[in-house]
Write a structure and sequence with these properties.
By secondary structure, this protein is of the alpha/beta class. The chain contains 13 helices and twelve strands. Helices cover about 45% and strands about 15% of the residues. It has a six-stranded parallel beta sheet with strand order 2-1-3-4-5-11, sandwiched between helices. Strands 7-6-8-9 form a four-stranded parallel beta sheet, sandwiched between helices.
């Protein structure tokens, strides 16, 4: 016996509202009270109601397709957690709002990368673009997409991208500052820092926060050594020996993400170092790897899945006219230092 699939009318009956109200909620429309919206979404979940994006596209003439663009580098493995968590958050929001998302990896080294991204608007009929770093700071790309009538949302813009389009992110500078302040509180005065890719401005702001915290304690370039990684585990293992053998002899190594911190931790274990007694190590993101490595990694938590979710919600708000603000908005989500077992009091 075939079970009848629930319809929008079933959702309306269960939630006690009109069919048009259900449609407005599923489309992210305006003028719906929070209590009513919650009731409709509860009915959707109870009935396991699924929106048919293809049917709605044919009916309304809109594709209801969004593109989530990531930069790729053929020479390096991707930051798997960051991208997959953003994608998962975006997919969950799209399911709720009745949209689809096309995930596109575009190599930033190719001279036609901007054209490849803009072609998504015409060839794939994408109604909106979500740009992750470093594309989220490509002003020319953002302006070109907007000029074609495409809505744009940026994830973790580090500077130039803000003010050009709606965006969402954490305060990366404050995250780097807060982590460094914690290490200073533990008595550390000699530091190593592994930064992210050149041009990744949000990650560079973590380095700026690190330097600000040092400057407040009258520490400067002579008290730290900074190397540039590429966000991968491999770059952490590759750069760790240079930091560990440096004449400064850092007591704390700060990394711009967790994958590189895990690489440093692996290299330290290979040398027989006792972590954290011999060396404190910190990361950024609070990726699953932070809780898997031994000892568990002290890091800065940023809600990556929520970043992906809010990026979609901001984009749909623009597409449906919910966000009446003429000027682009930037939504800042909270970060937090998560102290685990790779940091302890400095032994100078």
């Amino acid at each position: 016996m075939t079970t009848k699939r629930p319809t929008i009318d079933d959702v309306a009956r269960l939630s006690g509202v009109a069919r048009v109200t259900v449609s407005r909620v599923l489309n992210g429309g305006p003028n719906v009270r929070d209590e009513v919206r919650a009731r409709v979404m509860q009915a959707v979940e109870t009935l396991a109601y699924k929106v048919n994006p293809q049917a709605r596209s044919l009916a309304g003439g809109a594709s209801r397709l969004l593109a989530f663009v990531f930069a790729s580098d053929p020479e390096n493995e991707p930051n798997s957690y960051y991208e997959s968590a953003l994608e998962l958050g975006a997919l969950r929001a799209c399911l709720t709002l009745g949209y689809q998302v096309l995930v596109q990896n575009v190599p930033q080294q190719t001279p036609d990368h901007q054209k490849r991204i803009l072609d998504l608007i015409t060839t794939q009929r994408c109604e909106g673009l979500i740009l992750s770093p470093p594309y989220s700071d490509d002003v020319a790309l953002i302006e070109a997409a907007l000029a074609q009538g495409c809505k744009v949302v940026t994830v973790s813009p580090g500077g130039p991208g803000r003010g050009k389009a709606d965006g969402v992110g954490v305060d990366d500078e404050a995250g780097g500052y807060d982590m460094t302040r914690e290490l200073l509180r533990l008595g550390h005065r000699r530091f190593g820092f592994i930064a992210g890719l050149e041009g990744h401005l949000s990650a560079d702001r973590r380095l700026q926060g690190f330097r600000r915290a040092l400057a407040e304690q009258a520490l400067g370039e002579g008290d730290c050594v900074v190397l540039r990684g590429d966000f991968t585990f491999r770059s952490g293992t590759r750069l760790a020996p240079e930091l560990l053998d440096h004449p400064l002899k850092p007591t704390a190594l700060v990394c711009a993400n967790d994958d590189m911190a895990a690489g440093v931790l692996s290299a330290a274990h290979a040398r027989g170092l006792n972590i954290p007694q011999d060396l404190s190590i910190t990361g950024f993101d609070d990726a699953p790897v932070a809780g898997i490595v031994w000892p568990p990694l002290t890091t800065v938590h940023q809600p990556v899945k929520v970043l992906g979710q809010r990026a979609v919600e901001l984009l749909v708000a623009r597409l449906t006219g919910v966000n009446v603000s003429q000027a682009p908005v930037f939504e800042k989500l909270e970060h937090a230092v998560v102290s685990r077992q790779t940091t302890t009091t400095a032994h100078l």
